[in-house]
Write a structure and sequence with these properties.
The complex is a heterodimer of chains A (431) and B (130). Chain A has 431 residues and is an alpha/beta fold. Chain A contains eleven helices and 25 strands. In chain A, helix 2 packs parallel to helix 10. Classes of the chains: A alpha/beta (431), B mainly alpha (130).
Chain lengths: 431, 130
């Protein structure tokens, strides 16, 4: 029953939408008639939201776009592990909204959205302003289920046991703890069960923490206490660890003693089925849910994520509101910054069509995630996605991982491409 | 399937960035259904729709290769290359004739027709701006 890409191509041939504007020719804008200008509001200035705002303006400059983000600059989770490993600085992963404002004509408002009235098409800011929209894009990222881990809380995360799964002060705290810990201590990294932001992230973190420890505290080790039985790019990571950090990284599956039963911030221990484990540094990555505003606006399902129409990313719960990025349920796509930006571009194109009373164009989506195991040892996962009747699916035969037998040259190239990837995607979104 | 909203054209304000502080602007739009209608094959492909398809496909490339395919890093630029060059490169990545780290995995996700549309999009983009 799935609609294949070939069907989509036929769809294109059929010219369903009648008068077909390409997304190229931006002249002849019927909506400018009568002095009205379409207004799209984007909530959240991360990979998803900022990409949507930029591409809405790029693809149709007649649309007025407002981006609401409370932070004045955005610090990316991608490459924050490089900071922990001593390979990048916080400045390297910080991006401002200047270019969105000055180059792309996006109205960026530094404020927080407190409520959304989807029926009226308005939202309210903490500062008291009420803003109306023709279409709304919500890209709120993630929030944490702190109470899923006995003994853990936001307060403990901010003082002693960081999650560092939203980059910023949390990254700085974890980095400082690594720098000040004694040689010989254990760094405990505790990743959650699926689904969560950046599936390979905890294992890249283990790699780059080990890189730092090997250089500065060689008697130390990394212990991963996992809520899962297997993890993303597992074979590639395991091989890389054996080659670069022999004996330094221990991974425990959920049933192999990895399941976190609780944490004691005072004793600095994690309770497992096999007893308490002491950490010089503990990094708990709690289970996650959609960002708070998604809950407040009634955009979430019983599992805490946002169901959307896969062709347009319009919420199935509130019309006129699109949800993209980590917060939405995007079928086969992982929760990654790259995926969020790809969804943002697709949502932007869909919104432009919908504002013109046309069908959203059949989407094409992509994901490319690099993980660094060492400075000259990179691996990647790629995926190309399309829309089918069952939702967003990965195109069979495409995508996949760095080959298991990749040569040292290829791994070194992937490490270089990882850096090139970061430069370009950052600029594609915030530049 | 989404029901259509009433179009309240009279209530659409002109919203200029930086000038809507304190104002409440009523939403007025008619969302199209987010599902895609059953395809009805016809012989000729609408050129505007082909360009639109090319653009949707090509937007995926900019994540790694830069906006409009203009790279600021070690990643190769797509911008400035001809349609023919891009098309044959992608086809070679797809078949494995050309070695790559990640491009083979990407190119396998597109049909030859889609590869042609992507190549044409970037080829035209370079022509237009040069």
């Amino acid at each position: 029953m799935s609609i294949s890409r070939r069907d989509f191509n036929k769809l294109l041939v059929s010219g369903v939408a009648g008068s077909a504007f390409g997304l190229f020719g931006m002249s002849g804008n019927t909506f400018a008639a009568g002095g009205s200008k379409k207004h799209v509001v984007v909530v959240g200035g991360g990979f998803g939201g900022a990409a949507t705002a930029k591409y809405l303006r790029k693809l149709d400059p007649s649309i007025s776009v407002t981006l609401i983000e409370q932070k004045l600059s955005y610090i990316t989770c991608p490459f924050s592990n490089w900071v922990l490993g001593g390979l990048k600085t916080m400045k390297d992963i910080t991006h401002t909204y200047t270019a969105l404002r000055t180059k792309h004509g996006v109205n960026v408002i530094a404020d927080r959205v407190v409520s959304i009235d989807a029926a009226k098409g308005t939202l309210k800011l903490a500062g008291g302003r009420v803003i109306g929209y023709d279409r709304l894009v919500v890209s709120p990222g993630i929030d944490f289920k702190y109470d899923a881990i006995p003994g853990y809380s936001q307060k403990i995360a901010e003082s002693k046991i960081p999650h560092a799964w939203q980059a910023g002060p949390q990254t700085v705290l974890l980095h400082r703890q690594l720098q000040t810990m004694k040689n010989g201590g254990a760094v405990l990294i505790c990743p959650p069960d699926n689904p969560f932001r950046c599936p390979p992230g905890p294992y890249e973190r283990a790699s780059l923490v080990a890189h730092y420890l090997k250089k500065h505290k060689p008697k130390s080790k990394v212990i991963i206490l996992d809520a899962k039985e297997k993890f993303s790019k597992q074979g590639l990571f395991t091989k890389g660890w054996e080659r670069l950090y022999p004996g330094m990284i221990e991974w425990h599956s959920s049933t192999g003693g990895g399941k976190v039963l609780g944490v004691d911030a005072k004793a600095m221990t994690v309770e497992t089925d096999f007893g308490a484990i002491k950490g010089a540094v503990i990094n708990i990555i709690p289970p996650q849910k959609a960002g708070k505003i998604a809950f407040d606006a009634g955009l979430t399902n019983e599992k805490g994520w946002c169901p959307v129409h896969p062709a347009s990313f319009e919420s199935t719960l509130h019309k006129g509101v699109h949800v993209i990025g980590d917060a939405c349920i995007a079928g086969a796509m992982p929760k990654s910054g790259f995926a969020a930006s790809s969804q943002g571009k697709v949502a932007a194109a869909a919104i432009i069509n919908m504002l013109r009373g046309q069908e959203p164009a059949p989407p094409s989506l992509v994901n490319t995630c690099y993980s660094l195991i060492g400075p000259e040892y990179g691996i990647s996962v790629a995926g190309v996605y399309e829309f089918a009747a069952t939702g967003i699916i990965e195109i069979p035969g495409s995508g996949g991982l760095t080959p298991a037998d990749a040569s040292d040259d290829q791994l070194a190239q992937e490490a270089m491409f990882a850096e090139g990837w970061y430069t370009n995607i950052s600029k594609d979104i915030w530049g | 399937m989404l029901p259509k909203k009433n179009v309240m054209l009279g209530l659409v304000f002109t919203v200029v960035p930086l000038f809507h502080a304190g104002s409440t602007v009523m939403a007025a739009d008619a969302p199209a259904p987010a599902t895609v209608a059953a395809p009805a094959p016809t012989p000729a492909m609408d050129p505007a729709k082909m360009r639109e398809r090319g653009q949707i496909l090509a937007l995926s490339c900019s994540g790694c290769h830069g906006t409009d395919g203009k790279s600021s890093s070690i990643m190769p630029s797509i911008y400035g290359k001809t349609t023919g060059y891009i098309e044959s490169a992608l086809l070679d990545f797809k078949s494995g004739a050309r070695m790559s780290t990640v491009m083979g995995r990407h190119a396998k996700g597109y049909t030859p027709e889609e590869i042609h549309l992507i190549a044409e999009y970037f080829g035209n983009l370079s022509k237009k701006k040069n």
